[in-house]
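Notebook entry, structure prediction.
Reason for the run: the old model in the group folder had no record of what sequence produced it. Starting over properly, with the input documented here first.
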Amino acid sequence: MSKQAIRDIMDTKDLNMVFLVGEIVDFGVTPHKYGITSRARLKIRKSNRFDNFVYLDVYGKRSIADTMNLVCQNGNIVYVEGEFRNATMDKVTLKPYVLVRHIKCLRRRRDVAPPKSEDVVTILDNLDPTGYFNKEDE
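New structure, fully documented this time:
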């Protein structure tokens, strides 16, 4: 990477910004009064060896949470731009986490099982990660 390219990145990004590429191994959604928070656990290769991995949780709030719901499926390889934040655990300890600013799917999982049911409502209900449609409201 040239010096000019590094300067361009430094001018447009935070110094706190991190760039990650990993595989989604777990995904979850937490509803709040101001919206939803999405959490994805990334499996990141630590080195050139095939048996060394690091697992990292990344969080998306507000507008990026909807994008994460669509992109983060188990097995997908994603590119994440985010920044380190601190979540206050108590007055003494801090727990760092990565807040997602941009996420993009690089490669979708290879083996996608065909739907078990041919009922369109059931298929869409199974694909809905945040539960916009509640079965009990029928």
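Summary: The first strand starts at residue 17 and ends at 32.
The old model has been moved to the deprecated folder.
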